[in-house]
Structures are given as C-alpha cells and as structure tokens.
Amino acid sequence: MWGREPGFPTLVFIILEQQVSLASARSTFAKLNARLPTLNPGSFLTLDDRTLKEIGFSGQKGRYCRGLARAVNDGGLHLEELATLPDDAVCAALEKVVGIGPWTSSIYLLMVLQRPDVLPPGDLALTAAAQDLKGLDHPPPPRELEAIAEQWRPWRSVAARILWHHYLNPE
After folding, report:
1. Residue 38 above 70 pLDDT?
2. 36 phi and psi angles, rounded to 5 deg
3. CA pseudo-torsion sign 126, 62, 11, 100
4. Could you give the CA distance from residue 118 to residue 108 in angstroms, rounded to a whole number?
5. FRET pair for 145, CA 20 to 30 Å: which of 4, 121, 153, 160?
6. pLDDT 10s digits, 71-114
7. Closest to 115 (Cα-Cα) out of 61, 157, 150
8. For residues 129 and 110, is the Cβ–Cβ distance under 8 A?
9. pLDDT(53) > 80
C-alpha cells in the first residue's frame, strides 16, 4: 500500500518527488537524512542554499521546503491535525504553502492519511498506465483521466495503486 508516516519529513519527500524520477527523489532524501539525522522544520532551516544544492535540491524545491518548515514552525500549518480533517480541508491547509499543490496534497491524502477516494491530478505514471490499460491512442489529459476515474468512486485510491503497480511492472 506504500503507506508513509505523517509529518514534515514525508512532506519534504513528496515535494522532492514532484516532477522527477522516484530514484532521484530517494537519492536526495537519503542525502538529506544523512546530513540531518533528525529531520524537522528547525533542523531543515539550518541548511543554507549551498548545502541544499550539494544535497540535490533545486533552488525551487529548497524554497518550497523552507516555506513548509516556516509554516510548521510558525503555527500556520498544524500537521498533526490533518488526520482529523475532511479531504478538502486537508488539501486547503496544505495548499496554503507555496510549492504544495493538488498533486502533493493528494499524495499526502492517499499515502499518509490512507483516504480511500483520491486520484492525484496530473500524475504522469497514472496517465501512462491508464492509456495502456484502456488501449487509448493518446495519454489522457487530466480531465479525461478524471472522467475515466469516475467509475472507480469511492475507491479511486485503490485504482491509483493498481495503475501505479501496472506502470512499475508492465509485464
């Protein structure tokens, strides 16, 4: 089920996964954890731009993660409360942080909070798997994939996992 622990480190990892390969995100996250054995907002904020770049962060992802760290430190984002909120409120709370959009908040809902009806918008692996399994001659754009996924409600999270498995293991 690819479950993940709630909290700041997981959100940093999800931000690192945005628009890059899983291997690249894992490598950068491993280097970050080697540098900061205790990864929390305060420890993250001790890292300067040069150090983040050495670890593998782009300037943009470094800014996003710093913004996340500040939001948690300043009390603007209460990560421990997310599990008690409905899906739309979780997304709204997370997406107040620059660099966290619908894909990132959906991944948090699906992987961390284990919500049953989430389909991350614009996920390229889901799109590729849906194209293959549905025999489409083109990758379905986000709205088309959403329309296809309507038949999977209220279990779109299960469908997303099946699509990811297909994408990672096409044989």
Report:
1. yes
2. -125, 85
3. negative
4. 10
5. 4
6. 999 999 999 999 999 999 999 999 999 999 999 999 999 999 99
7. 157
8. no
9. yes
C-beta separation of 90 from 77 below 8 A:
no
Q: Are the beta carbons of 125 and 163 closer than 8 angstroms?
A: yes
- Where b means 16+ CB within 10 Å and e means fewer, 99-109 reads bbeebbbbbbb
Structure tokens at 69: 């760290």
Amino acid symbol at 139: P
pTM listed for this prediction: 0.92
Q: Which helix (H) or strand (E) holds 68?
A: helix 59-74
pLDDT for the residue numbered 171: 73
Residue 109 · residue 87 · CB < 8 Å:
yes
Would you say residue 170 has pLDDT above 80? no
d(CA 111, CA 2): 6
